[in-house]
């Protein structure tokens, strides 16, 4: 087997993964892979007994709005594709099949107004750019068409933006269903957040005010597919971590050393 004129991903202590080009044919049994890094450095990468490094996707596929369209789908390919879309194109949403991957920009973006909601209303998922509204529209359309309950799962690490994403989804439902309520349903549901967070938040290494709980919010619709109300059906508190308050840790001071001589 021979491999040449291909690019691969190799682990990097600072960038996590870095791209490299194979400069010499690799044959079964070779102990090293001859690579050329992007900065011009030549590297003999050991591959025995380690496996061959993952291949890099062609440049024409970089920036795809659906990760399943990539030729090679692995950790470095996913991270690089998300990085290109977020850093270079300022796009925070990417599909992975029916899953929507969201990057938290930690700032308000002008992509959630009523005009955007109406643009996604009635569209099939995949016809337009990836968006939380596309996921909400798919759930709403399936509910109205098939008269069956739908679920939207919002998951992610602490600080990923789960609460905000859920709020935008509920705003979409309230807008497209032409709810007559004077107060939007997302405002009513999120008004309970201070109560749930008061007993379910804890400081972690990644977030000073991390939500250590999960909840299942049920939104009810009538026969005209308009919102009639919402309630919290399930509240799962992570009791193993929200059990006590850590006492203040004093700054460590080294013990005095004994005199020498």
UniProtKB/TrEMBL annotation:
Entry keyword set: Actin-binding, ATP-binding, Motor protein, Myosin, Nucleotide-binding
Protein name: Myosin VC
One GO CC annotation: cytoplasm
Family: Belongs to the TRAFAC class myosin-kinesin ATPase superfamily. Myosin family.
Pfam families: Myosin_head
Coiled coil stretches, renumbered: none
Alphabetized InterPro entries for the sequence: Kinesin_motor_dom_sf (IPR036961), Myosin_head_motor_dom-like (IPR001609), P-loop_NTPase (IPR027417)
GO molecular function: actin filament binding; ATP binding; microfilament motor activity
Signal peptide from the UniProt entry: none
Spans traversing the lipid bilayer: none
Species the sequence originates in: Gopherus evgoodei
GO biological process, one term: actin filament organization
Myosin motor domain location: 62-261
Residues that bind ATP: 156-163
SMART domains the record matches: MYSc
């Amino acid at each position: 087997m021979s491999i040449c004129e291909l690019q691969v991903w190799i682990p990097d202590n600072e960038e996590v993964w870095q791209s490299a080009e194979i400069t010499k044919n690799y044959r079964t049994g070779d102990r090293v892979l001859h690579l050329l890094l992007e900065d011009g450095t030549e590297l003999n990468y050991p591959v025995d007994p380690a496996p061959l490094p993952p291949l890099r996707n062609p440049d024409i596929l970089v920036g795809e709005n659906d990760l399943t369209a990539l030729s090679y789908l692995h950790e470095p390919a996913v991270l690089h594709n998300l990085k290109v879309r977020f850093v270079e194109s300022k796009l925070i949403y990417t599909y992975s099949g029916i899953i929507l991957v969201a990057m938290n920009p930690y700032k308000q973006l002008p992509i959630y107004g009523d005009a955007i909601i109406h643009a996604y209303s009635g569209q099939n998922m995949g016809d337009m750019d990836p968006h939380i509204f596309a996921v909400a529209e798919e759930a709403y359309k399936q509910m109205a068409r098939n008269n069956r309950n739908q679920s939207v799962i919002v998951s992610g690490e602490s600080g990923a933006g789960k609460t905000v994403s859920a709020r935008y989804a509920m705003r979409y439902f309230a807008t497209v269903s032409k709810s007559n309520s004077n107060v939007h349903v997302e405002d009513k549901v999120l008004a309970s957040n201070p109560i749930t967070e008061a007993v379910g938040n804890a400081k972690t290494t990644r977030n000073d005010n991390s939500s250590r709980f999960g909840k299942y919010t049920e939104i009810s619709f009538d026969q005209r597919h308009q919102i009639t109300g919402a309630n919290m059906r399930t509240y799962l508190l992570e009791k193993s971590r929200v059990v006590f308050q850590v006492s203040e840790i004093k700054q460590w001071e080294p013990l005095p050393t004994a005199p020498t001589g």
